[in-house]
Amino acid sequence: MKIIAITDIHGEYDIVEEIIRKESPDLLIIGGDLTTVGSIKEAEQALQRFKSLCKNIFCVAGNMDLPQHDGLFERLSIGLNGKGVQIENIGFFGVSGCPLSPLRTPYEISEEEITERIERGYLEVKHAPIRILVSHAPPFGTKVDIVHLGIHVGSMAVRSFIEDEKPDVVICGHIHEGRGQDKIEISRIINCGMASHGYYVCITIMNEDVDIKNRQLIARS
């Protein structure tokens, strides 16, 4: 299975379409910030565009989306917030939003709520041979949650879950300058980077072998 994971689109839908056309994935994962405080209509129209190019999509909302976007994702049967879905030997589960912060962005929730949603989804896929957590917020204390001031701002709840349950892969975003990869024990943590700048992640899974590469779309001249 070929998976393309993207986060922090922030309304740059043409770039995402170009990524999908280039990679022709079996599955598109959107790890939050599809919009920048965009309407339900805007989000749905964007997803319809993506769906015309890749029929299989999973999605969580980011802190700059609206909480109501989760309802849209559920209606379209693509939402992973507090849910788990297994495809072949891969279990996907996720959590929307980000931890509470001084910025008071549109979709922030407590660490306790993050834990509850992750665990709820995990219960539905915990026996899958490969388990992939999709969390807009990265785990605390990693290479992928450091802001430009040099401090860690990720989620303690996400980190605690990873340490306890050891998912194979964690897809995240949110911290734009945190693009890259890290590990917590056996779990591979991938901050996709800003899709609005052409960054994305390609995940290829064959049997139980998982290959992960951070990539960037090169703008056409």
3D structure, described in words:
- The protein is of the alpha/beta class and 221 residues long.
- It has one domain (2-216): 4-Layer Sandwich (Purple Acid Phosphatase, chain A, domain 2).
- Helices cover 24% and strands 29% of the residues.
- It is built from 5 helices and 13 strands.
- It has helices at 13-23, 40-51, 69-75, 111-122, 156-165; strands spanning 2-6, 27-31, 57-60, 84-87, 90-95, 98-99, 108-109, 130-135, 169-172, 180-184, 187-191, 199-206, 209-216.
- Strands 4-5-8-9-11-10 form a 6-stranded mixed beta sheet, with helices on one face. The protein has a 5-stranded mixed beta sheet with strand order 3-2-1-12-13, covered by helices on one side. Strands 6-7 form a two-stranded parallel sheet.
- Helix 2 (40-51) links the parallel strand 2 and strand 3.
- The protein is globular.
- The model has no long low-confidence stretch (mean pLDDT 97).
How would the blueprint of this fold be written?
Elements: E1 2-6, H1 13-23, E2 27-31, H2 40-51, E3 57-60, H3 69-75, E4 84-87, E5 90-95, E6 98-99, E7 108-109, H4 111-122, E8 130-135, H5 156-165, E9 169-172, E10 180-184, E11 187-191, E12 199-206, E13 209-216
Parallel strand pairs: 1-2, 2-3, 5-8, 6-7, 8-9, 9-11
Antiparallel strand pairs: 1-12, 4-5, 10-11, 12-13
Helix pairs in contact: 4-5
Provide a short characterization of the protein structure.
The protein is of the alpha/beta class and 221 residues long.
Radius of gyration: 15 Å
Mean pLDDT: 97
Q: Any idea how many domains?
A: 1
Q: Which quaternary structure do these chains form?
A: single chain
The arrangement of helices and strands along the chain is: EHEHEHEEEEHEHEEEEE
Spatial strand arrangement across the major sheet: 4-5-8-9-11-10
Largest sheet: 6 strands, mixed
Percent of residues in helical segments? 10-25%
CATH topology: Purple Acid Phosphatase, chain A, domain 2
Shape: globular
Termini gap: 31 Å
Please tally the β strands and state the result. Answer: 13
